[in-house]
Structure formats: structure tokens, C-alpha cells
Amino acid sequence: MPVITCVEDLRVLAKKRVPKAFYDYADSGSYTESTYRANTDDLAALKLRQRVAINVDQRSTRTTMIGHDVTMPVAIAPTGLTGMQWANGEMLGAIAAEKFGIPFTLSTMSICSIEDVASVTTKPFWFQLYVMRDRGFVKSMIDRAKAAKCSALVLTLDLQILGQRHKDLKNGMSVPPKLTLDTLMDLAGKPGWALRALTGRKTFGNLAGHITGGGSGIQTLSQWTASQFDPTLNWDDVAWIKEQWGGKLILKGILDVEDAKIAAQTGADALVVSNHGGRQLDGAMSSIEALPAIAEAVGDQIEVWFDGGIRTGQDILKATALGAKGTMIGRAFLYSLGAMGGEGVTKMLQILQKELDVSMALTGTRDIKDVGPQILIPRR
Questions:
Q1: Within a 10 A sphere around the Cβ of 69, how many other Cβ atoms?
Q2: In terms of CATH, what superfamily is 7-375?
Q3: Active site residue 276
């Protein structure tokens, strides 16, 4: 086993262990992938102020996100097909997040179902909702999340139309994987993944009975989502969903100040500054570039969170400095899961917290709640 020191080590290991189609699904952006790259590049471009001779003993990364006590200002973001990175991955991720003391968000497009995750957790998790054309199906998902005692609903707003990801088309991305010659050759080099897959869930757990078509009963991901995601989604639907849900609501996918102002008036508890990991509008600004203006405009009305490009604890610190009250991590979670399963998720969270803690100390900060723009070198 190689020595794991950072999230990048986990990414490299995941690439070796996860079938190409599923690794590429996690590690890709739309079209030229310029926004995907900008998410990490723009975070890296931010520079921290090193401070010395300040008492930084007894540091704390603890805070709250919409009233939930968290070990650090991080939640696991909703990620589709998580159980294809490692068998039953959503269940393993939820267990690791609960033990570490941060929220776990289950995607509508998960492999393990809401009920699967509820069966292995003792504390409420969050559920992420996509709005489908069939509002009856939407309501049924909300009702299932309520029955599972989910403590927050994350409504994704930036996937009315599916952005094209070239790698998925070239790989013939499907669930379960189609057994072509290329697929079989790839799986032959990943025997551990293949053996685990025999006993794991193999289809979209939340969508059982709702996906139709194709000889196998399941179309490719891009075909199904293109036909079911609803381009008519609007703010009236957000109000309807809030009424149906009745609990804490998080709006994910805000990148524009005008949209943030509308979101802040919906009565939602938090909004997430996010460009869907660069997987939707290629050429859009990075999440970290959008964050300061949104935090300034509505940060006193609604909790503003950040998602997009986090690979280190320093990235969490930088987002916090620019106004984020919480962050969500997606790819770092998938890399860690694909590399080492639930153990990898725990390792990743430990790495991020240690990097966050050390970087706080070196910027002269003892409490994450005291972090602000003063820890950054002003950009010219």
C-alpha cells in the first residue's frame, strides 16, 4: 500500500483501481473542461498571509452548518453513481462521514437507495433532489426522504439541461457497465473492483421502477437524464418543493449574484455557490471567483456555502476567508472512496482537517469562526 499524504495520492490510486468509465465520469467536466480546471486553478492562485509570534494553541475547526454541529465546515456533496466507485459506496461514505462528524448528502442518482443509507446510519443524513418532469416522482422522493428522517433537502438548480461530457460519450457510460471487449479488458486489470461489484448494488437505487428502455432495462446515463431532467424548472417549483418538504432546504448551483438574491428570498436555509464541478456550463466562472460577491450580497440573509475544486484543507480555509460558512466536497470524496473504500473516506477527511488546522495556525488563527479576508494576501 502506498503512503497516502494528500488527496492527490488518493486520486492517483483511484485511477488505478476504478474502471475507466467510472473514474472518467467522476473526473471530467463539460466540453473543453475549462471551468473544471478553473475551479482548482483559481483556488491555488489565492495566497495566504503567514503570521508569526501569535498564540495559536488550542485551535478549533468546529462550527455549524444550518444549525448542525460539524467537526469542520465541510459536508459530503451529492455525487451520482458513487456506488460504482466502490461497491455500496454511498453506504460506506455515509458511515465514514457520521463517525467523523460531518453531514453526508445522498444523490438522487445514487446506486444505494435512501433506505439503504438509512439502514446503516444512526444520525440523519441529507438528501439531494433533482427535479424530474414527473412531479409525482419528485413528491415520492421527498416523502421517502422524510420517512428516512433526512434532516435537510439539497435542491440542485443547475442541471435542467445536461451538459455534455465528452468522456462519458466516448466510454459508452452505462449502469451496469456494458460488457464490451474494451470493458472486459479494463475490468481484468481491476480484479478487486470486479469482485466487490458482484456483491454490491448495481443500479440506481432511488430510481428502481422508473427508468425504462434499452435491452437491459436501463439506458445510458446521458440518455435517461436528457429525457427526464426538467428544463421548465423555475422559482415557483422551488416554492412548491419547499412547501412539500417542510424542513431545512439548501439550494445548490448558484453562481450569479442576481440568482443569489432571489434564492435568499425563498426562505431556504443555505445556498451553495457551485458550477456543478465544471460539468455544466463550460466557460462559466470558477466557484471561488463567484463566491465573494455572492457572500457580500446575501451573506447576512442566508448561509452561503462553497463547492468546487476543494482538494486540500487550505482550499477550505480560503473559501471560508472569502465568506463561505460551509463547504461541500465531491471529487475528493469520490477519489478517496475509489482508492480505499470507507477507509479512504476517513483518511481523506483526516487529511483535510489536518491541513486546515495547520494552515490556520500558520496564518495566526485559532478558531475557524474567526477566519476572514484578513488571512489572504489582497489580489492586485
A1: 10
A2: Aldolase class I (3.20.20.70)
A3: yes
Domain residue limits, the chain: 7-375
Residue range 279-305, pLDDT digits in tens: 999 999 999 999 999 999 999 999 999
Name the pTM for this structure: 0.94
> For residue range 234-256, what is the model confidence (pLDDT) as tens digits?
999 999 999 999 999 999 999 99
Q: Which of 68, 166, 210, 276 is catalytic?
A: 276
Please report which confidence band the pLDDT of residue 22 belongs to, taking 50, 70 and 90 as the band edges.
very high
φ, ψ for residue 126, nearest 5 deg: -105, 155
Residue from 163, 123, 122, 174 nearest 36 by CA = 163
- pLDDT by residue (tens digit) across 107-143? 999 999 999 999 999 999 999 999 988 888 899 999 9
Contacts of 80 (CB under 8 A, 6+ apart): 25, 107, 108, 109, 110, 221
